[in-house]
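Much of our argument rests on the idea that a fold can be written as discrete symbols. Part of our work consisted of pairing the sequence of a single chain with a tokenised description of its backbone. No coordinates are needed to read the tokens, only the vocabulary itself. The record that follows shows the chain in one-letter code together with its fold in token form.
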Amino acid sequence: MTDKDRMEQSGEIDEFWELDDASDTAAQKGSGKRQEGQDTVGRKASPHNTASRRSGSRRGVSGKNTGRRRKRKNTETYVHYIIAAVLAAMLIFAVVKLVVWNIGKDSGYDPNADSSEFEVEALDYIQPLDPELLKGREDDGVNTIVCLGNHPFSDERGKDGLAELIAEKCDATVYNGAFPDSYISMKNTEYTDSYPQDALSLYLVTASICGGNFDLMEHAVDLLSESDKAYREALDTLKSVDFSKVDMIVIMYDLNDYMDKRPVMDENNDINLLTWNGALNASLQEIQKTYPYIRLVVLSPSYGQFEDGGGKMINGDTEDFGNGVLPDYVLHEIDVAMANGVSILDNYYGTINEDEAKNCLTDGYRLNKKGREKVAGRFAKEIFHVGEEK
């Protein structure tokens, strides 16, 4: 190749780099001017200028990379903005929902409204006697009922007493065999004269009735009747009953066992006479074995409270002495009755609750005249269906 050819080829190469430099410079500086010592587009340059232009071409490549980095930075900035916008929207949404939730909706509840018409559902269990158990027994046409228990029956034995009210409402002959200050459970494993009330606990009364032997009860009543003639009256009544003609035994004890902090149950012995459950369970089974034709009905305690020795008012609904609150005793009593196929009326939730205590109870837990009326009325309705349309 001749020198002339080389010069022409060099000029063509220079022309190419000049075009590239011109475009790069315009993109970076926004000006059409050239740096000093460079040729304009279309003019040939010396080898020195060619090297310079080549150097300029490298700067052009760097400029392109810078542009790409700027684009990436701009994109990253937009992503940050988008994320920030989304978070802000979520925060605003959460705040709005919280404000709306705090405002709530009008439920229509009026704190000053009279709620006395609302009642808690009673946990009654009504079990009629199996007709098979009455086969061969002659019906004398008289409803004969024996009442066992303590204060609900023993506090009043006149015309306003619970037993008399049941007799009137149910058209029945009723014998009141309830003893004051007695309990379902026993306090001691064996009877002792230092505590004669044990002989009048539910199971020992039941054992005397079913065994036809009242000697132990006679002994205990002799010790107790000096302070209260009601003991003698109750025992004489029980001794006068012909149980072959009895149709029903009604059992009702108040919260004496709870007040005396007696155990509710023994998980290892379901007829432990020192417990509320065990004594009731053993008593029901003894009567069912001896007098299968007698229908058994248990009436649970109603609501009650009492004043302890220190003058503190104890609310049976909330005070736990270690064996549960009073409703626990009621629920266990219901469980025992159901397990033995015996009817039970829940007076705690169904007859006299805390709202009615002031009008139906005296001393916080004993039934007054109005309270006895309510218990007798509910018994007549649920057991004898008095007042129901036929």
